[in-house]
Every structure is written in structure tokens, then in C-alpha cells.
């Protein structure tokens, strides 16, 4: 049984006098206990809105969320806000791109970690602070005893992200949602943080939803990958499957267009034409059709459905990239 | 005529750190660029990589004198650029143009594309067959002539970057300094802009200095790559050589940190994980600036700053005392403890009072 089961999740933003924006459009995916699942896609495809909807963190007004978010059989979308708050932090941890905005600037770090432990695990202040010290140590923050009394702005971006990871993992949640946790960091710091995350989730058996635009990050980390385009999942596959044989023309095009450090430099990069502003609405066919090299008549007219492939994979395409026939 | 279009000699850009109520006292310096020498050959692409804050942008801006260098020499096509003053510098600048990272914030939203492009031409007194020139420039960056009457917000990120490139091109420059030209763009758009830069270089014979933190992109477009760390070049080599045989420990760590979109490769990779953060450029370590994070550092590294020296016949340059011993395996890496680095102080650096020239339109 999956730990997290997101079914047909949609989020529509609607403000008076503006056209509704369908930011997330019927997204379904599951996360098994201990599994690492990737959500990849480019800016604006609905990654962050999906994660905020799962956590119940979207603004109260101006949007409509439909579908189900089952965590351990409980539909989080049906919980009252105060009950949901108990789940957050205790059963589900989260990390965002910008650690500074998720840390409280006027509370010392130690206390911020300790408060989570006090609230969810009923620790005394003293015990919680001691545990906070150990947590800061575990995420690789130098000299943790002294860091307890310091404030977020006294730390570098990488160290702040470590502090946030310490808070997110303080209660040993069963699920961690990380939204672009390394995008604002330099590549050498990114490598530190990704290695740390991998070790921590491996050790604790925490399931991880990794949200990123970087296919390289996914390649090293995720068991299963969901590729999002314009608010919908267009392809889902096991990591090795997805990278070895991408079937969706968008996934295929993306993988071909990024220069790789480990292969000889080609002359020109493969490029995907146009931009997301050329998309057509999903109700009129495949949103990617105006940019797609493989577009055929069947792609236009009505929504292309997401069809299961094998081993839990799925594909939303009428004319997918052919599979290589083994010789 | 030498084959170098640009020669930078021991360039330094130090920003004063002011303190006191009226910021009248200089209490130190940010050594943003601290003694860089390099040559950029005519028609080639020189790529500059390094972590944020290591001085890449400041070097690019110092080269164009958008920020005044503290010392050092800049020669462009035989002309001593630092000796040019006022009006002559302004006219000279047409030959060296800049393309910025964020196409939205570098384009004035109230100006149509036409007036954005004309602005530069006018400033340089170039009025001949203006309309034809604008159309052909737009065409060369893959935008229709109808774009002329539109405004920046009507375009996607990739198209705005094309406008930024067109604005530089319309002046027929010889050198383009592109500071993170694709890093603000979506992955699916990056290839378009990279290919465009390639095509333009081919057809117009442009010389590029491309600044980026993405090593895979830099390797793809560059002929020569310079790796910067804390204000200095630590290594320089041809793009292939740098990847084949990185000599400097920092280059090795940087290359090993870049994620590769292939699980088969990722599963087998050995990473050199660097401890801690980039030290503050206001308070760089003594000796080798990389020593606080270097897994090969020795006592000598704290005492003596390694010079960027030619390593062998390949022309590869490296600033490390022990490059030979590290390459041969004679010197083994050891563990490094992370040192805590404080982020730049709140009020210490007051950018407004620092004599930099405006970043934007470079007429
Ligand atoms: N509060 C809001 N009101 C209206 N539209 C919104 C709001 N938040 C997000 N959107 C829209 O929803 C869509 C998806 O946004 P989302 O932030 O999930 O993208 P993302 O995939 O996380 O992108 P990025 O990679 O840039 O973080 C976008 O078109 C965005 O403009
Ligand atoms: N105008 C300025 N005043 C003071 N310090 C500056 C200024 N511009 C850049 N710096 C500092 O110089 C260093 C190098 O910056 P920069 O060249 O922008 O790095 P990069 O482009 O490699 O990220 C940084 O520490 C930065 O904060
Ligand atoms: S459905 Fe058609 S247009 Fe869409 S990705 Fe597949 S082939 Fe291309
Ligand atoms: S000089 Fe010393 S500290 Fe610097 S890179 Fe070489 S071995 Fe490392
Ligand atoms: Mg987002
Ligand atoms: Mg920069």
C-alpha cells in the first residue's frame, strides 16, 4: 500500500476579473514507504503548486483544489487546518528552495529545531535542545554547540539549508517533500546537500518527493520519476527506464538538449522549438503539440490520456518515441 | 598583429568596505578580482567558471570598465583600454558589448524593442539605414520584424534573451561578454540560445567571453576555459583538456560535483565532496586561497601563494604547488574539516558609494 497516494489533483487559481489558471491539472502519483519519487519539469509546470496542495499550504482564497491526497489512507484535503498542522512536521517534513524564508529570522536556530521536537514529541525544552544539537551535528553544521544560539542570517546558504533539513527530519517523518532544495546553491554545495539527503533518507527509511527542474539531480537520486508538462504528468517511469528509453517526445527532447559533461562535445545541441507560451490547452489536444517533432493528426482534438505502460509507468502520447528493439 | 583580441594583465578589482555613520572610513576591501591575467584569442570563446561570488562578473565588468579596475592592464586589439578617457572610452565601448543573465531585468519594460535597439545606435551616432539594420539584426537572432513594435513583457524568457543579444549585436561589436546568458532560462530553451550564440559567432566572427556556473554548458561552448576561485584563476586549459585532465583540486571537485543525467553514470561516480563554503573574499585565506577546503593541502600551502604557471607543453596553466604530485598520485588526499564561513556582513559593503559605473545600457 502506498504511503502517499495523490489522485487526480487539480488546482485552479481564480481571481476576480482574471481568467482562471489551471496550474495543476489532474495529477496522480504514488509514493511507497521509503521510496524516492521525482517530480521534474520546467518553470511554471506546476511542481510547487502540487507540493503546496499536498501540504495544505496554498493560500486560503483565490484557488480551488480538487482530487484526493491520501496519506496512510487519510485524505489530507479533507482534514481541518489545525489537524493538518499536526501531520505536517510530524509525519511529513518539507524543505524549500529558499531556506531563509522558511526559517524564522529572530529565533535562534537551536530553539527553532527544539520547538518542533517539543510540539510533536512532547520533549522538555532541555531535552529538545540537546537533541537539536545532535541534529545540527548530524546534518554537518560545524561546531553545533555554538550554532544553537545563532540566527539564520549568520549562516551561509548551504548551512541554512542544512538547518532546514535538520528541522524537517527532526521528528523522523515518514515522508519528506523537497522543492528545489539545491537550486539556489552552488554546484559544490549542491553535491554536499544531495549526498546528505541521500544518506539521511537511506538511514531513516523516510520516503522522499524530490521536486526539481534538473534531470541530473533526479538521475542520481530517484527511484521513480514523474515528468510534468503544463500541469499534467506526461511520462512516468523507473529511473533507469526513463533515462535509457524516454518515450515522451518532451522527455526525449529535454534529455537530448542538455550538454553532458561526460560525453564528447557535439557540434550543435538538439533543441526543442518554441516555448511554453506556444502550448495549446489540454482540452484541445496535447499541450506540447505546437513544439513537438512527432505531432500527428491524432494529437489535436481532445485531451490525450495518460496510459499505463509497465511496472507502474505511464505515458501521455499518441505517437511516442519508438522503443529500441533489442537486437 | 597578435592573435589575442583581449589581453588582461594582473587585473585587480577591490571594492572598499566602508564603515562608520557616514561610511567615510574604509575598513577593508573585498578582493573581488585579485590579479587575473589571461588572453582571449580573436574568434574564440573563452569560458569562465566558478562558484558564485568568486569574481566572474566583476572580471567581465572590469574588462569593459563598467566597474573601474583597481590596477592592472587591459589591451583590446592593441589599444590600452585603461588609458582611454571619457568620450573616447564611450565610443570604444561599441566594440565590446555585454549580454546579461536576466533578460527581464536588463531590458527597460517601458521601451519597445525598436527603441531598445535604436538607443544604442543613436548613442554611437550610427544612423545609416537604421530600419534595415534593425530588421536584419532581429532576423539574425531569430525574431520576426513584427517584434519591433512590441514590449519586453510580451515575450517569453528565451525571446527576451534574444532581444538582449540583438541589442548587443546591433552595434557590430567584436567582443561580447555574456554573463550567465542561459542560467535564467528553462532547460528546453537553453539549447536554443546556446546554438544561437554559436551560429552568430560563426557568421559574424565574434569573440566571446562567456561567464557561467554551469560546467556542462561552458564546456560545450568554450574553446578555452578559465576556472576562478576567490578572485583568481586557478586553472586554464582547452575545454577538452580541462575535462580530460583537470589538474587543480578545485577543478576536480567542481567537475565531480556536476550531476549527470544518466543513472548508470551517477550510480558509479566517485565524488570529491568539498568541506564547507567559499571563504569571504574580504578575508581570503593566506597562501593558497583554496587551502581551507583542499583535500591535498600541505603546510607550504598556507605560507606561499601558488602562481598560475604553465604546467607542460599542452599550455595548460594551473595554480597549485603540488599539481605534479597530485596528478601522479604521489600525494594522497586527506580529510578536511569544514570551517564556518559567515555570509557577507549586513552593512559592511555599501555598494552605492563604490565607484562602479552603471550596469545597464552600455551606450
Ligand atoms: N498564487 C497564484 N495565483 C495565480 N497563479 C499561480 C499562483 N501560484 C502559481 N500560479 C501559477 O501556477 C502555475 C504553476 O506554478 P508552480 O509554482 O507550481 O510552478 P513550478 O513548476 O514550481 O515552477 P518553478 O520551476 O518556476 O518553481 C504557473 O503558471 C504559475 O504562474
Ligand atoms: N559593487 C560592489 N561592491 C562591493 N562588493 C562587490 C560589488 N560587486 C561585487 N562585489 C563582491 O565581489 C565578489 C565577486 O562578485 P562577482 O564578481 O559578482 O562574483 P560572481 O560573478 O563570480 O558570482 C563578491 O563577494 C561580491 O559580493
Ligand atoms: S501526443 Fe502528439 S504532440 Fe503530444 S507529445 Fe505525443 S506525439 Fe507529440
Ligand atoms: S596549493 Fe596546496 S592547497 Fe592549493 S590547491 Fe594545491 S595542494 Fe591544494
Ligand atoms: Mg517551484
Ligand atoms: Mg555573477
Automatic annotation (TrEMBL), chain A:
The keyword Acyltransferase does not apply. It is a peripheral membrane protein. Pfam families: ABC_tran, oligo_HPY. CDD domains: ABC_NikE_OppD_transporters. Keywords: ATP-binding, Cell membrane, Membrane, Nucleotide-binding, Transport. InterPro entries: AAA+_ATPase (IPR003593), ABC_Ni/Peptide_Import (IPR050388), ABC_transporter-like_ATP-bd (IPR003439), ABC_transporter-like_CS (IPR017871), Oligopep_ABC_C (IPR013563), P-loop_NTPase (IPR027417). Its main location: membrane. It is found in: Cell membrane. Residues 6-255 form the ABC transporter domain. The keyword Acyltransferase does not apply. GO terms for molecular function: ATP binding. Signal peptide: none annotated. Belongs to the ABC transporter superfamily. PANTHER family: DIPEPTIDE TRANSPORT ATP-BINDING PROTEIN DPPD (PTHR43297:SF2), OLIGOPEPTIDE TRANSPORT ATP-BINDING PROTEIN APPD (PTHR43297). This is ABC transporter ATP-binding protein. It comes from Paractinoplanes pyxinae. The lineage of its organism: Bacteria, Bacillati, Actinomycetota, Actinomycetes, Micromonosporales.
Automatic annotation (TrEMBL), chain B:
Residues 6-255 form the ABC transporter domain. SUPFAM superfamilies: P-loop containing nucleoside triphosphate hydrolases (SSF52540). Transmembrane segments: none annotated. The keyword Repeat does not apply. GO terms for molecular function: ATP binding. Gene3D superfamilies: P-loop containing nucleotide triphosphate hydrolases (3.40.50.300). Keywords: ATP-binding, Nucleotide-binding, Transport. This is ATP-binding cassette domain-containing protein.
Amino acid at each position: 500500500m502506498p504511503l502517499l497516494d495523490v489522485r487526480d489533483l487539480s488546482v485552479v487559481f481564480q481571481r476576480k476579473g482574471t481568467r482562471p489558471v489551471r496550474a495543476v491539472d489532474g495529477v496522480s502519483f504514488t509514493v511507497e514507504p521509503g521510496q524516492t519519487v521525482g517530480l521534474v519539469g520546467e518553470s511554471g509546470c506546476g511542481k510547487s503548486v502540487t507540493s503546496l496542495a499536498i501540504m495544505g499550504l496554498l493560500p486560503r482564497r483565490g484557488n480551488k483544489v480538487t482530487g484526493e491526497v491520501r496519506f496512510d489512507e487519510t485524505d489530507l484535503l479533507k482534514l481541518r487546518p489545525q489537524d493538518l498542522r499536526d501531520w505536517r512536521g510530524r509525519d511529513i517534513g518539507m524543505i524549500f528552495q529558499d531556506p531563509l524564508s522558511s526559517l524564522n529570522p529572530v529565533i535562534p536556530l537551536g530553539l527553532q529545531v527544539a520547538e518542533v521536537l517539543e510540539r510533536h514529541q512532547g520533549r522538555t525544552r532541555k531535552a529538545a535542545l540537546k537533541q537539536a544539537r545532535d541534529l545540527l551535528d548530524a546534518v554537518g553544521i560545524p561546531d553545533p554547540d555554538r550554532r544553537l544560539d545563532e540566527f539564520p542570517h549568520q549562516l551561509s546558504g548551504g548551512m541554512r539549508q542544512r538547518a532546514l533539513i535538520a528541522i524537517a527530519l527532526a521528528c523522523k517523518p515518514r515522508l519528506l517533500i523537497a522543492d528545489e532544495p539545491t537550486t539556489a546553491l552552488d554546484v559544490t554545495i549542491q553535491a554536499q546537500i544531495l549526498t546528505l539527503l541521500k544518506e539521511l533518507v537511506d538511514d531513516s527509511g523516510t520516503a522522499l518527493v524530490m521536486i526539481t527542474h534538473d534531470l541530473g539531480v533526479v538521475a542520481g537520486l530517484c527511484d521513480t520519476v514523474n515528468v510534468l508538462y503544463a500541469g499534467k504528468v506526461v511520462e512516468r517511469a523507473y529511473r533507469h527506464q526513463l533515462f535509457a528509453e524516454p518515450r515522451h517526445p518532451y522527455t526525449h527532447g529535454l534529455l537530448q538538449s542538455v550538454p553532458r559533461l561526460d560525453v564528447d562535445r557535439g557540434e550543435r545541441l538538439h533543441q526543442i522549438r518554441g516555448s511554453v507560451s506556444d502550448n495549446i490547452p489540454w482540452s484541445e489536444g496535447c499541450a506540447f503539440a505546437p513544439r513537438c517533432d512527432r505531432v500527428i493528426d491524432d494529437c489535436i482534438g481532445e485531451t490525450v490520456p495518460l496510459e499505463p505502460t509497465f511496472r507502474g509507468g505511464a505515458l501521455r502520447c499518441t505517437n511516442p518515441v519508438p522503443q529500441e528493439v533489442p537486437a | 598583429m597578435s592573435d589575442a583580441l583581449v589581453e588582461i594583465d594582473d587585473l585587480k578589482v577591490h571594492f572598499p568596505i566602508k564603515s562608520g555613520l557616514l561610511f567615510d572610513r574604509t575598513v577593508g576591501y573585498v578582493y573581488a578580482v585579485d590579479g587575473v591575467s589571461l588572453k582571449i584569442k580573436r574568434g574564440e570563446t573563452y569560458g569562465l567558471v566558478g562558484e558564485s561570488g568568486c569574481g566572474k562578473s566583476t572580471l567581465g565588468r572590469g574588462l569593459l570598465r563598467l566597474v573601474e579596475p583597481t590596477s592592472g592592464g587591459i589591451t583590446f586589439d592593441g589599444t590600452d583600454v585603461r588609458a582611454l578617457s571619457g568620450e573616447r572610452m564611450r565610443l570604444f565601448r561599441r566594440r565590446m558589448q555585454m549580454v546579461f543573465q536576466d533578460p527581464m531585468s536588463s531590458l527597460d519594460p517601458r521601451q519597445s524593442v525598436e527603441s531598445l535597439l535604436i538607443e544604442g545606435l543613436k548613442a554611437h551616432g550610427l544612423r545609416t539605414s537604421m530600419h534595415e539594420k534593425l530588421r536584419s539584426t532581429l532576423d539574425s537572432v531569430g525574431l520576426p520584424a513584427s517584434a519591433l513594435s512590441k514590449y519586453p513583457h510580451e515575450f517569453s524568457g528565451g525571446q527576451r534573451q534574444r532581444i538582449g543579444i540583438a541589442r548587443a549585436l546591433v552595434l557590430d561589436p567584436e567582443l561580447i561578454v555574456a554573463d550567465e546568458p542561459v542560467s535564467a532560462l528553462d532547460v528546453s530553451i537553453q539549447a536554443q540560445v546556446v546554438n544561437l550564440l554559436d551560429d552568430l559567432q560563426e557568421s559574424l566572427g565574434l569573440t566571446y567571453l562567456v561567464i557561467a556556473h554551469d560546467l556542462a554548458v561552458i564546456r560545450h561552448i568554450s574553446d578555452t576555459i578559465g576556472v576562478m576561485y576567490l578572485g583568481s584563476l586557478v586553472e586554464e586549459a582547452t575545454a577538452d583538456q580541462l575535462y580530460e585532465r583537470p589538474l587543480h583540486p578545485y577543478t576536480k571537485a567542481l567537475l565531480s560535483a556536476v550531476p549527470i543525467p544518466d543513472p548508470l553514470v551517477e550510480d558509479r561516480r566517485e565524488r570529491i565532496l568539498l568541506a564547507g563554503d567559499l571563504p569571504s573574499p574580504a578575508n581570503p585565506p593566506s597562501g593558497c586561497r583554496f587551502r581551507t577546503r583542499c583535500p591535498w593541502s600541505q603546510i607550504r600551502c598556507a605560507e606561499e601563494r601558488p602562481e598560475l604557471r604553465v604546467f607542460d607543453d599542452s599550455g595548460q596553466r594551473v595554480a597549485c604547488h603540488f599539481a605534479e604530485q597530485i596528478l601522479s598520485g604521489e600525494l594522497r588526499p586527506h580529510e578536511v574539516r569544514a570551517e564556518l564561513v559567515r555570509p557577507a556582513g549586513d552593512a559592511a559593503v555599501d555598494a552605492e558609494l563604490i565607484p562602479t559605473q552603471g550596469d545597464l545600457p552600455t551606450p
